[in-house]
Amino acid sequence: MRGPDDDLSLLVDAARAAGVIALRYWRQDPQSWEKPDDAGPVTEADLAVNDELQRHLTGMRPDYGWLSEESEADPARLDARRCFIIDPIDGTRAFIAGQEGFSHSLAVAEGDRIVAAVVYLPVSGRCYTAAADGPAQLNGQPITPSDAGIDGASVLTYRAASDAVHWRGGMVPGFTREFRPSLAWRLCLAAEGRFDAALSLRAAWEWDIAAGSLIAERAGAAVTDRRGHRMRFNSPRAMVDGLIVAGPRLHGELLDALQS
Q1: Superfamily for 4-142?
Q2: Full-model pTM
Q3: Adjacent-strand bridge partners of 177
Q4: Could you read off the pLDDT of 71-124 as tens digits, one per residue?
Q5: Which of 2, 66, 191, 260 has the most neighbouring CB atoms within 10 Å?
């Protein structure tokens, strides 16, 4: 039977092929439009990458389910033992703007847990990887989160997370807020200690965080939803209730400081 390492090798190859396709469109004024229901932008590049990933990955693993931001929902995935969870281009707004910080986020779930994961940034060549039984790596080198405390920590999050309403007693901790366009990349940046934490108090789509969550976990970070519960994937709604990703010390301090 195939193990996580077999799936990881497949995902790495697929992510690099996705990067080749994406870069054909990057800074070439790709066609783009807004999705219905304020779901954000999509480009012809997103769809081209998605089509190639679905063709290749499901061709290699026809018994796996498929969950992707750019595919119609397939309820059959809920009955599959393993399921691909894919964001063809995470950070589409950055991609449209010609910025470098977009990524391809590819993961395999077994049951409700992620067992293989890749986040690949094709412009910089940064390739984050992890399997359930191995280390988290960046371009083949192990990564670890920081051991920072909450005061002065660099936290990757959006502006509204600094509103007093979210924090116990209205006291916003003394962290420094930073931002990067790809949510998958934010989790990886926390995993490698370039930033101290990634935080979202909004519900997050599984395809944005599935790969990054395993990479951070295998790096040694504490990885939970915003209320401190273990993340579960391949769910009917395909959403997780926010996220806190940080070294164990900072994770605990953020969780204690948040409104329950």
Answers
A1: Fructose-1,6-Bisphosphatase, subunit A, domain 1 (3.30.540.10)
A2: 0.97
A3: 155
A4: 998 999 999 999 999 999 999 999 999 999 999 999 999 999 999 999 999 999
A5: 191
